[in-house]
Amino acid sequence: MIKKNESVCAVVEALGTNGEGIIRHEGVTFFVPYSLPQEKIRFKVLKIKGNIGYGKVEEILSPAPCRVRPICAAFEKCGGCSLQHLGYERQLIHKSNVVKDSLRKIGGLVVEVPCAVASDFPYGYRNKLQLPIGVDKEGNTVIGFYAERSHRIIPLEKCDIHPAWAETLISVLHRFIQETGVCGYDEETKTGLLRHIVAREIGGKFIFTLVCAQRNVRGIDTLISLLQAEFDAFTLYINVNTKDTNVIFGDEFSLVYGEGFFEAEEQGIRYEAGPVTFLQVNENVRKKLYDAALSTVVETGDEVVIDAYSGGGLLTAMIAKKAKRAYGIELEKEASACADALKAKNGLDNMTNICGYVEEKLPAVLEREKGEKLRLILDPPRAGIARSVLKALLASGIPTLTIISCNPATLARDLGVLTGSLIENEKGELVKNPVYQDEGLEGYYQIDGLQPYDMFPQTKHVETLVWLARKA
Q1: What are phi and psi of 299, to 5 degrees?
Q2: Active-site annotation holds for 406
Q3: Which residue among 66, 212, 338, 406 is the active-site one?
């Protein structure tokens, strides 16, 4: 019987969803982060519950051919990246396998999944930075990323999946703290001021938001001066968050420097974004993904296209240039306002932006456009598509759907409902449909195509684009 704290030598069989090595040893399936398939390792048993165990690598006895040296000094400490030790081509294959396995295990769907589309920039690709600010055990203010599954901050001077400007910003913050004496927020004592710094780059310009526990920030002019010395064009907000929550932003934003919004252009669409506007963090892969999503919208101008979970309206505007009419449905008020400004800026009279929950607003749009040639594009959050929306889609008769998903697990669940491979039981739970066949069911949707995209290199995350057609 294997016990906690025991050292075990074994060979890694596979790679798990979160990038951890999977080892089956003496009737227990162990998950061991930072180990790779084919490797013989010695690991320490951290926990065993039933036939599931968790371990920590003590030594790589026989490295896998696909293992590479991580470039980040904080790798295995910071909770951000989990795959820097895996060669990039193998990362792409792994992410495709994650999508394929999720569809099979969760959705009951057997689908061929091609290799993930690569990012041209495996490092330095992120246009958005979110860093917690807190205190260490000695009470010193620290800036960095949380360790895995904790709120313990790993201090960092730079992050290799962000461009060089992130290192500059961290340096500016350290100087600001040193010169003014302001402190990081202590989550245990509820004291201190600085909670997060959030930065977004838009066309070489920056939106900085300093998240604080109170409205008044001593020495804010010092921070502005330090930023002016390093960044040519930026705007600065103070956000007040007094809640004991994992949500970064509070409700109150105060503009303390700059214009508040910045304008950029992509694929002929001029747009502006603010501190909470959603934009994909990898511009290179975003273009590839949007090009593929748009390729299904015919340019004859006879389609009405609904863009659900539309964010700042960039994709909706691209659709409007090709469609008869385009609707964007978005919950976030600021993002919807940005979409309205984008509509006016680009003269898109056939674009309508609706602010609200998709499950509440979509039925009215479907009713209004009844009889038109409809197409629906959905880009939901990690929680996936609301069950009520899925039911509305099945009842709508819309011939084609396009889904952009950032979570293979909820994607598998949603596709299961849409294809009929999952049905509700009497308790409202989703269960495998015993009559479902691989070719699909009439009245449901069938998967016409699927393609993963590596929006987040070096991490466990993957974006997936799916095309569906109604099965007559």
Answers
A1: -95, 15
A2: yes
A3: 406
